[in-house]
Specification:
The structure is a single chain. The chain has one domain. The protein is 3% helix and 36% strand. The chain is built from one helix and eleven strands, in the order βαββββββββββ. It has one helix at residues 15-19, and strands at 6-14, 33-35, 41-47, 51-52, 71-74, 77-93, 98-106, 118-122, 131-139, 145-146, 150-151. The strands form two sheets. It has a six-stranded antiparallel beta barrel. Strand 5 (71-74) and strand 6 form a beta hairpin. The protein is globular and about 70 Å long. It binds calcium ion (CA) (3 copies). Residues 54-56, 86-87, 139-140 line the site of one calcium ion.
Length: 194
Amino acid sequence: MTYYYKKFEFTAYTEADLLANGRNGSSFGHGDSFTVGSPTVTMSTYDNDYSLSGDGSYYGNGHAQDGSGQLASVDGERVGSQMYAEQYHVLKGSDGQTYYMIEVKVECHDSAGAGNGYFTFYGAQPPAGTTLTNVGTCDVQGCWVDYRCLGAGETAPANTPPTFTNVPRTAFSASMRTPSWSSTWPLRMPMAMR
Ligand SMILES: [Ca+2]
Ligand SMILES: [Ca+2]
Ligand SMILES: [Ca+2]
């Protein structure tokens, strides 16, 4: 049998992000809430299957059930040992929708700051500014969590470029130099269409 490893990557919050408002104690759980902002980390791993396993079973509590792959990286740096889906949280949004968030943990590694886990949405991602309240938490087992459904949106750019205010009036913008079919700039057919 041949094993193929693929890279999987998703954005996430640290537990400290979700505790930052000071109202959620030392661990994010039932009854806690937070307002959606930009994710602060990117998690990645290589795996030979398509699911982020839970923990427990044969390998014991706190240990990934998957015996191959799932070694954890955070922002491109290898940390701890394997990552696994500790549990999932059911979140009620201020927009009336229900969202699901997976709490990801890493063997022998805690996320930076308060708390120890990482959190990423499963499936639908709420818009920034939505307030989410935790209405239930359940264990994750087996191969429930498909990597392709994980993510917490785009991370904020490291730097916001300044706006130039002294651009000369004669400067061409990119769009002015790129005629489109609807423009009144009937120059030539592209080579491929002649
Ligand atoms: Ca796996
Ligand atoms: Ca595997
Ligand atoms: Ca668990």
